[in-house]
## 1
Amino acid sequence: MLNLESIRPEIKKINKDLISNDRNNSIKNNKNIYIYKNSNNNQELEIKNQNISNSLNNDNLENKSNNYSEQENPEIPPFRRNLIFTVFLLSDLFLNYDTGVIPASLIEITKEIELDYSEQALLGSLVYLGLSSSSIFVSLFFSNFSPSKVCSIILIFNCLSCFILSYSLNKNILFLMRFVMGVTEAFIVIYGPVWVNNYSPLEHSATWMGILHSCSVIGVFLGYLITSIVINLFGNLLTWRFAIQIQGFVEIFLAIFFWLEKDEYINVDIRKKIPLSEIELENRDINSPRNSINSPSFNSPSIIFGSNSRRHDPRIDSIEIGNLGRYIYQAKRVLSNTLYVTITLGMTSLYFIVTGIQFWITKYLIEILSIDPLIVNIIFSLISITAPLFGVLFGGTISDKYGGYKGKNETKAIQMCVGFGLVSFVFAFPLGFLFQIVYLSILLWTFLFFGASMIPIGTGVMISSVPKDCQATSSSISQLVFNLFGYFCSPMITGFIMDRFDDEKQGFIWGMRVVFWWAIIALMFFIISYFVSYANFKKNKNSGESDNSSMIEDSMKDNISNFMKLEINRRLAQGSSSFI
């Protein structure tokens, strides 16, 4: 259990170090008393200030925090704000559009350009490699250049990549353009939620964020649908190349909008919004990531004092290279969490299956089952939209009905995932042997439905299994793992397997069987997670303490350290008071 004695030396050390750095300041004998309370098994730290002269009380500082939020977010006319939000939605949608175009046009592409299965897989996977690579330095660009101009230029590069890809007959150029499209996609995909978090109406912020994230899925579906229509209904006039050009044409107008729009309506840059004398947000001596859009949320006065001002949450899928040391420290803590690791690998396996089905199933149904392409496009469009959507809603509803996935309900939630995974595998196994479209469609829909039911529960357990101050880091790690070992590796591994057979048809069949039967690997990781969670539960029950009490203590120390450094530095700058 965390106690005051374990924190007091840390407080004294910070007091001594910081006060000694500014001996010329007038220091008055005032005291702050830190009292640790354990009430109803909830750990909390109560900070009481006594006799501090010439300092702001909590209410005043909270008011300044709110003023800071207002200064930071200039008032945008409602129509203009809605228009900018719509442009972000369209940008996110069309940046994912090409991911649906490639699977729908795979047969047409191979008619024009000779590609083996591995090369076809590379054409689909390189975008995820580019997305993962650029997430490392995205925050650096947005921190040092105008975000509105960065968004505009990035859209132009993505637009050029679309046109070059659509006119090229050289497979190496196709591969390069797909990689560039992934690199450029990451910028707006990462920055869009940051803008929504800062400028959306407070009463609708969650709704706006949900709509923004849904555009990625809609973009993939729209790309698949439009390409299917172009190939099947207008094949005599147009080709798959026109379908990819649509993305480029739309992005031209989006890029012009970002370039001409007022910078203050697009940019999120706290450096220009508040004087240092108002509220000191960080200590210059401790490598604070002030210049990054990914600044840790505990550096905000609204977090320290519990105000209702808008928070600056870190992005969950980019690595903040300006504060790499802290990231590595938190990454070590996260990766030492067995439950987090096993759940993440289980979720990665689910995304591996979904990506493999999305990429290969159209060609599989047309070439192996000899189904009419138009019928295939209609059937798979319906399956790919309804099964995952209803599955996610079903899994989330059932989980909530039985208490959610947090605390004592964690083991029960993982047990549900194991149950869904078992049912999913039961329907997945026969898929590799069915060649009738009716039976295959029914089993495929059921397979995807129960697989999707695991996603909301697994995601919730994955996030809640680590301390709050490590959740941004844990999410960035999980996104990197999903992109590399789920989305990227799925077509690559199956394509490699397909090329190992002399008979192309048999190779394709066995490649798809690997995709379907990968469900057993996902199930295995969730079963391991269940035993890990159950062992933690038994351990906590026997000891009466939380499994991660040491991590909570470290987190508490970190938060106290940061709070005191922020507060003392601010007061020393004002020459008013000190901590003893």
Note: Confidence is low (pLDDT under 50) at residues 21-72, 270-317, 576-580.
## 2
Amino acid sequence: MILIQTPAPCFAHGAVLRVDTATTVWSRCGIIESNKKAGGSLVVLHCLALQLFFCAMATKLKINDATKSKKATATKVSKKRVAKKVAKRSVKKVAKTTSPGSRAKHTTGQAKKTVKRLVKRVVKKPKATSGVTVVDRSELLKQHKPQPLGHLLVEQKLREAGFRGEVSSDPALLNEYSTDESIFAVRPQIILQPKSGKDVETAVRVLSAETKRFPSLSLTPRAAGTGLSGGSLTDSIVIDVAKHLASIHEIVDGANGVTFTCEPGVMWRDMERELKRYDAYIPSYPASKDICSIGGSIGNNAAGPDSLRYGHCADWVASLEVVLSDGHTYTIQPMSYKEYKALTKRDDAYARILKEVVALIEKNEALIQKAKPKTKKNTAGYALWHCINGTVADFKKGKAELDLTRLVAGSQGTIGIITKLTMRAQPVAHDTELIAIPVFNLADAGNVVVEALKHDPINVEVFDGLSFDLAMKNPEFFKDRLDGMQYYKVLLAMYTLYHVRWRRHTPEFTLLVTLDGKHAEKAALKDAVAAIKAAGGARARHITSPSEREMFWQVRRASYTLSKFQDETKRPAAFLEDMTVPPENLSKFFAEVKKLLKKFNVTAAVHGHGGNGHFHFYPLLDFTKQGVGDMVEKMSEAFFDTAVKYGGNICGEHNDGIARTPYLNKMFSKKELSLFAAVEHIFDPDDIFNPGKKVNPRFDIKDTLRRTN
């Protein structure tokens, strides 16, 4: 059996529990039947019944299974007798303390039924066991049983420990945090909004201690809530690092370029505006940079258009301040072997983690390199293959560095919580030129992309014919995005392109290739256009008109939003949107994708990063209908198998979350997945950080789907 020490009664004799935030928790327990106002006064429940609940639960959990059945029976009878006696007194007092107008809604008879059901639950006959068994917390999490009492006590424990931020279980706020931009909806129990890094430390220490008694408690970081995989959703506690932790600390223009330090809640658009003063930008910016935060982007290891040349967010991280499972903050940054030896002499969580991670890599070096995805972009699993920029032997010889920021970036808050970050910035390129390539024959797409890559582009972006058609059919959409005459110039460029240049035939795809430096010089640019034409892009063109150039980028950036105009009663569903394949396999991959879309009778606008072979498409689904869950699972199986078949992966930049964690076995072997589980356990032995993501999936996709569009 499991022995759990219950807390001392938290209410004094004769106290009254008002129907406020706590009532919601008791309602979910089935202890309070109503939280509505009645006759102008709040329905209250006398705490004698609550004390009965606590005491009886304590008695139940401490029953020794070796006790004689006779003694167990006597205990049961005794408890039932006491329960009934106290219940009668409670019912009378409830009736007395309730206003006449409310008695119609909360009658004595209803109260009797409530207490009777409570008594029946408490005195239920325990199953016979043989002695005490220690159950691993991961096994308890698999049972996925909520523990409202644990969540109810968290606020009290946090305040006692000095937490200064907001703690709320307000139903409206819980509903707000139940969704992000994904297709999932999971209702948390509590929302924390820390005001400082110290608050985050306090929250981690309290949760670390309380999970010993209440294993279902956990802490899930959330920033702007724009993720597409459900990574920030939880049925336990959300810690919002964007509400107050949103300060820009400093920007340094040094000998090695521009760096900046900020808190995780800083919005990408605000940081970009500050960097403009230094003629710099963060080249790993995601397409959603207008609505997402810096911290959330690192948590997902986001990437975007310029990632073809410049990589993911992890490639631009200089250092991170992270609260680890012991509730202390550590600065994580690249280190030499000499620095590693000095740090591992300490007696703290970070020193232990360093030693265990290096030992894990050294023991499994060949397996780790084998597990490394072949595509250029990837956020699946934990990037063990990037922790050392060489071999372990090179590291020990001082020829390579160890960098655990490579594990934290992309971990979705499963191994620690970022409270401060420092990143490098890149000078803005001003000498760029654009080549637009309409691809009318899908079979030519792969060859065109491969040829374009030979000219070292900053990016190769793509949108499909459906996106362009939707842009032409919804010109008013661009009115809020373009000022004055620019709006009309862009529309003129769009319709002229379609009617004159394309002769009213929309291409399968349009590729946008951005060149700079020597490749953007007149002669080199001419050669590039000629080579792309010869590879299958017969109508490739150097775009010289500023309005036409803006038109192409407007359609590319708006592709996802435009897809919503197809059918406003449905939702563009993000669960297949992150697959990548090698560019040379692009044509074959998309030929099969089109067949699958037809098979499942769905439409999807497509856009993405063609140079990486990385495409986003969002099938239109109606989440109010039954059967959509089965469809999501069947489509996931079929489409993910297709991506892997063509040498790709299922997760390029939006990370695993609820959507893809259950399918990582399509990319990685059992041994490789066990390495990820080992990493998570090294950092978070009690599994308090965002459980169920990256490893050990525990959210059923069908059960957690949103029910609205």
Note: Residues 16-134 form one domain.
## 3
Amino acid sequence: MQEGNHRPEEFGTAVNGVGSSTDERMADGEGPKTLTTRQGHPVTDNQNVRTVGSRGPMTLENYHFLEKITHFDRERIPERVVHARGAGAHGYFEAYGKVGEEAIATVTRAKLFQQKGKRTPVFVRFSSVIHGAHSPETLRDPRGFAVKFYTEDGNWDLVGNNLKIFFIRDPLKFPDLIHAFKPDPVTNCQDSERIFDFISNTPEAIHMITFLFSPWGIPANYRQMQGSGVNTYKWVNAAGEAVLVKYHWEPKQGIKNLTQAEAEAIQGKNFNHGTQDLYEAIERGDFPEWELCVQIMSDGDHPELDFDPLDPTKLWPTDKFPFLPVGRMVLDRNPLNYFAEVEQAAFGTGVLVDGLDFSDDKLLQGRTFSYSDTQRYRVGTNYLQLPINAPKKHVATNQQGGQMMVRVDLAPGQDPHVNYEPSSLDGLKEAPERGKEHTPYAGGNLVRATIARTNDFKQAGERYRSYSVWEREDLIRNLVNALSTCRKPIQDRMVEHFTKCDSDYGQRVMSGLKAHPNGKRVKEGLHGPIGNTGSQEAVQEAERKGHPAKPY
């Protein structure tokens, strides 16, 4: 072996580069680009398996083939249940050092915000929610907007969507919501009747439906869409005092959405258009940028409002709680490998740094368990040791073992025999407090109950009335097309909900359904995906237009 100029400790269990192309030690005759197996064996023939004679049979001791094909068989980790289709990029967050025009230290002690011009590395993953990893990026679906900040105090994940609200407020209903929107378990086709059967019995979702079926339900691309933390969080200052906070990403490139007809035309030409748009913009130096704004409210129930500030189905009115800029984010580098960086990227709403905290938002608390639990199943126990997920700072834990552990988190001078705490030996020690701890009071009877101020229809009606003429027309058209394949009791419940939002809203949907030619299809049980126009015609058209071919 060619030893090179290395210290012995560089080749232990916790070394970057060992067993990879960055390790400079090579066998005789090897160069930096020599093909090897994962065991480090140089591969002299990568074209032919070992056989008895040139025609075979093949022998079982083909180690190179067995390693290569068995790894290939396992190249995919389990697909995300939601947010499977995604694109990502690296960049940085630059703090303004203030919140609006006030010193930011008055409301949070989080270090990444304090100094004007301070830059924190980030990785962002955009996604669609319902469909699979290679589904078209033109489908009517919320878009995920997840940002990982690699701060000096460890990682902070701000995990949300492009739309600022959500369908439900209780995490117990999340599996039901996703099941309703996912393909039918029998036909494996998305079915609008299943979706509206659930939605018509879940009136809190009407606000989100009013967004989703408008042009806001199909962003033109990832660069020109907003982002939001959706849930209510808290900021904590050095004195341990907290405020409620909402996060919003506003694109400097402007906002663009698509109508259903425009999306269908684009899908026929390129179903990867969003990923391609983001990648090519960064490659040509047209770096997308967003401003991070927050809304702040004092910590409390706020009975003067007609909604609960912890309700994720509601917006905070900007006339009372204005957007306050705190920094900007620029994406300036594409991933080198999609799987290693975008697919294996793992986010969680519980990943907060000092100065950031949770609110009592039930959906947020449910997400906080579910997200990290998903990553441990999907990527593995040691998913936080992967470079894309690991913090860019000192890590020292007493966590050991688990599938695919790649290093031991030993601190300098730590006794490797001591993997517990407390210890009077050379083990790990607790960190000092960064500031006074926030200690909110919690008390009451244990109950199963919805929040008191549901007010499911007011903001949906306000949103409907705020739309321009063409946005309202597209909303009504999309709702009528989707609801036309549903049975009448479902249609009637949805019309009732829309009417409670705004009488014109309900009247236009009802009139559209009466005039729609889909009545017979409902009786035949033929239902289509949401928003899609002419889905049944497409099935018949494929057979009618298909060109006959002779067997061979």
Note: The radius of gyration is 27 Å.
